[in-house]
Amino acid sequence: VHPNVSQGCQGGCATCSDYNGCLSCKPRLFFVLERIGMKQIGVCLSSCPSGYYGTRYPDINKCAKCKADCDTCFTRNFCTKCKSGFYLYSGKCLEKCPDGLEANNHTMECTSIVHCEASEWSPWSPCTKKGKTCGFKRGNEVRVREIVQHPSARGNPCPATSESRKCIVQRKRCQKEGKGKKNREEKRKKSNKDESKETRQESKGRAARRQNRDQRENNNKTQPKKRKAPNKEQNPAPVDTAH
């Protein structure tokens, strides 16, 4: 063993040097060289830092540097995140996205272009004018639709979501608000009142007839029977024959 190599190292080093830091790492740790000014120091980490990717070998696990335009990578040729100013596409960092794709400044990736999609039109609304459906001959009717897919930055814009057209209706007068209902209510009350009046009159008539009938029966019971006058023709007056 070199005189400068120590076996009792700290920070995950298996062997180390006072001048160069870690020379080898404990199992499962990654060895990486960090630059401090003009000097490189070996360190042992549980995972590789940003800009590096890990490789495992039987004798040592190392962190290798990613490409210059890559911030994090899986291997040297497959980037997982690009540095500022580049867009990720299929593991590569590009300054400009290929045809048919667009740059997403939020994720810094090249994504597919999404066009706007709208639903089917609704049925036409009733013909109206100034919010009314009566009192006019010419008005407007409207139909609408909804946006079901909003477009991306380079996608086709969304179409109009409403349409209006002229319409013709049969002219009719408008009833004043609440007048029709009020008239129906008044008619109903009047009808009920008339029925009640007729019912009261009929009841009074029946009571009067019953009272008259009872009065006649009482009179017949209380008055004596009249004697029948004799028939003058059957019983003629006696004739005086004295003369």
Describe the protein's architecture and organization.
With 243 residues, the protein is an alpha+beta fold. Among the domains are: 59 residues, Hormone Receptor, Insulin-like Growth Factor Receptor 1, Chain A domain 2; 43 residues, Hormone Receptor, Insulin-like Growth Factor Receptor 1, Chain A domain 2; 51 residues, TSP-1 type 1 repeat (Single Sheet). It has one helix and 17 strands. A three-stranded antiparallel sheet has the order 1-2-3, with no helix packed on it. A hairpin with a 2-residue loop joins strand 10 and strand 11. It starts with a strand and ends in a 21-residue tail after the last helix. The model has no long low-confidence stretch (mean pLDDT 81). Keywords: Disulfide bond, Glycoprotein, Heparin-binding, Repeat, Secreted, Sensory transduction, Signal, Wnt signaling pathway. It comes from Ibidorhyncha struthersii. Its main location: secreted.
Give a quick set of tags describing it.
single chain, 243 residues, alpha+beta, Hormone Receptor, Insulin-like Growth Factor Receptor 1, Chain A domain 2, TSP-1 type 1 repeat, three-stranded antiparallel β-sheet, two-stranded antiparallel sheet, 17 strands, elongated
Q: Briefly, what is this?
A:
The protein is an alpha+beta fold. The chain has one helix at residues 179-222; strands at 5-6, 13-17, 21-25, 30-36, 39-45, 52-56, 61-65, 70-75, 78-82, 87-89, 92-94, 101-104, 109-112, 117-118, 138-144, 147-149, 162-168.
